[in-house]
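note to self — DONT lose this again. spent like an hour looking for the file last time. sequence + predicted structure for the chain T wanted, 265 res
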Amino acid sequence: MMLDVPRSRLCTQEELESPSFQRWAQILREPHMYLHRKLWEWSFIAEILDRDGMLAPDKRGLGFAVGHEPLVAAFAARGATVTASDLDVEQAALAGWVGSNEHAASLSKLNDRGLCSASEFARLVTFRVVNMLDINVDELCDFDFTWSSCAFEHLGGLDAGHQFVLNSMKCLKPGGLAVHTTEFNVASNDATVDTGGTVIYRQRDIEALVADLRSHGHRVWLDFDRGSLPIDYHVDVPPYTHDPHLKLHLMGYTTTSIGIVVRCS
């Protein structure tokens, strides 16, 4: 049942150093983030969608809370039609995303690395204000793929992120693909941060989410391998060096990124 679903998994040194992921580092013009989990997240999303044939001229994608990430332009450069979404400016400012340069205040910022020609970007990319807690699935529907990069842990609580993933599946066509990354607690399957501006998902929270997705007929394949190479055991602590930065100490817990891939029923 799960064979056609790319594997959901944790950030690891082995995968980040793989040729396919380093290829995306070059495409995204991020070679200086060589051993950083953000590069892994972007490469994970891009590689999953690319291998599934989603980054093509006949495909439509929807990105949630795209902020200032380069994926929008990279996907448009492959010919995909992309709807980029984020909070409105006022809501983003209240949440602190505008001041930290993590909000998509304009379409031009989403192609400031020049990953896509200006004419193709203007033709293929549109922007929509979308609150991830209140998605208008009647308007935002029939997409071939959706994605978010470390976004749904900022919705106020574990349950809010869980509900977002479920609701956002309604934006997809049958057979479409959702790819999300979020915070993962590698230190504990018991205590965690469950409410606030940033929450940290435990293995049991991810398993509960997957069980809920499967109950709706969606397909997910989970792998919680934490990695076994030297950098997989390194924990970056505040003030972060960001080199390497696959696992970090965050609010009292050791965390990393997990990529979740869901095939729509």
